[in-house]
Amino acid sequence: MIWIGICLLVVLALAPAAVAIIRASTARNEREAALALHRAQLDELDRDLAVGLIAPAEHVTAQLEVQRRLLAADASADRAATRGRRHLGTWLALGAVPLAAIGLYLTEGHPTLPAQPLAPRLAAMHAEDSRTEELLVKLREGLASMAPDDPNIVRGYLLLGQAEAAREHYAAAASAWHVALDRGFDPELAARIAEAQTRAEGRVSPASADLFRRALDAAPKDAPWRMAAEQRIAESEHGQ
Prior knowledge:
The chain is mostly helical. Helix content is 83%, strand content 0%. It contains eight helices and no strands.
């Protein structure tokens, strides 16, 4: 079935070029017919002059008019033929497009490959999300049961924040990272929290801008995230 679809697409892509080629061929035929007609008219004028049906002056005038029409028809047909040759180049280019597309398709796929319906993939994604949520629930329960002075609690909340940020749950990520930040200020972590809050709220709030400033004040001059933090502060000031 896929090859039928590919053939239909090829036909649709090449149809304009095919029409142009047909028109060019028609123009050439019209040119030949016009030339034959005007030559016949010239021959007829010569016969009329020979048998005395028209005067020499009338013959010259009529001959000039036929020649003028002949030149006009020839020029018009030449323009149409030139357009036809240009369209032929377009047809060749369009013919190369589906061939290239088929070649690219065959490098990664094949018509005999089984279909991949959307529903099973969505079900697999949902199952993966469920497994991730179960792991995060266990992590939260483990962190809640830790003693406040446990040195691993900071590492646990950092891991929880990273997992939430990976799922684009930025408010939850900022909340988890805040717990770790309260145990000891770290400029890079503060910038992460401010960025997560900004993405969760859709704007740079005053609290996030203040956290960006605190992070910049404590960060080394060569911190790779310094420029991004400065841009966020500028957005906050511009929004105000």
